Amino acid sequence: MTCRAVRGGERVRSWSRTARGLRSASHPGPTAVVTLLAAAFALGVGANAPQAVLVTLAVLAGQLSVGWSNDWIDAERDAAVARGDKPVVAGTVSVALLRRAALLALAACVVLSLATGWAAGAVHLAAVASAWSYNLVLKVTPLSWLPYAVSFGLLPIFVVMACVPGASTAPWAVLATALLGIGAHVANTLPDLEYDRRTGVRGLPVRIGRPASSLLAPLVLMLATVVVVLGPDHPPGPAVWTGAAVTCVLAAAAGVVGRIRTRSRLPFALSMAVAAVCVVLLVMAAPELMLSG
Ligand SMILES: CC(C)=CCC/C(C)=C/CC/C(C)=C/COP(=O)(O)OP(=O)(O)O
């Protein structure tokens, strides 16, 4: 093999390593769920194809900026506790690359958001600014839940304003997504609670402790589901009632396990299952996102 071929192979391997690091640092799970939820909302309210694509790309860019900036800002703390799940600690991406990627995604988010309309764009940028305020300041305070409530609550408002100018968002949708955001925050913190405590990240879940957080996460997520089930004008069908019953069982199981096995990871998994059902029900309710009459 020639020297040039060897160097070419090394370069490809290094690029694919960096791409894997960037994918992992973007928080791919939440990024995908929020982006798909926005796309489903857009289609649900009757957006045409260009509107739906623009809204989806704006939300994707916002999520990437939030995910990458989170790992960039947390890099020192994550290194201090040797968090092996973080690509910046594993050495797959550098802090400088994460910073550049986050700022580039933020710039794309500004352009794409404003392309949906000035007012709608401003609402989405407020949601993204709120998420950055979590990364920069609020995650170490008792108000760590607030940016989640604000960002998630603004998501249906943004989609409705972008796709159906002049229409208002149904209040149940704002309440349900805000509760989903709070529940997702508390649940997402459960696996990292000890890391957070050791690095001084004293958000609400760390302050109230693991047993209380294991109860609070499924409870708030179940409340979000109740709002999705009872909020829309149309009475819920059998599929929706089934989803609601499943979330109640999962949430009760999470609460009980969290109480009797305080170190178990099961409350986290069960809470995420409740969140997943809630997201499915939200997608099903998307056509009712606008205030009728
Ligand atoms: C609509 C919209 C803009 C929604 C976004 C709302 C929001 C506040 C997102 C934060 C997402 C994020 C990077 C969490 C990581 O938290 P962490 O640092 O506590 O967890 P980690 O240590 O596992 O990275």
UniProtKB/TrEMBL annotation:
It is a multi-pass membrane protein. It comes from Occultella gossypii. The lineage of its organism: Bacteria, Bacillati, Actinomycetota, Actinomycetes, Micrococcales. The chain crosses the membrane at residues 101-134, 146-167, 173-191, 212-232, 238-256, 268-286. This is UbiA family prenyltransferase. Keywords: Membrane, Transmembrane, Transmembrane helix. Pfam families: UbiA. The keyword Lyase does not apply. Its main location: membrane. It is found in: Membrane. InterPro entries: UbiA_prenyltransferase (IPR000537), UbiA_sf (IPR044878). The keyword Transmembrane helix applies.
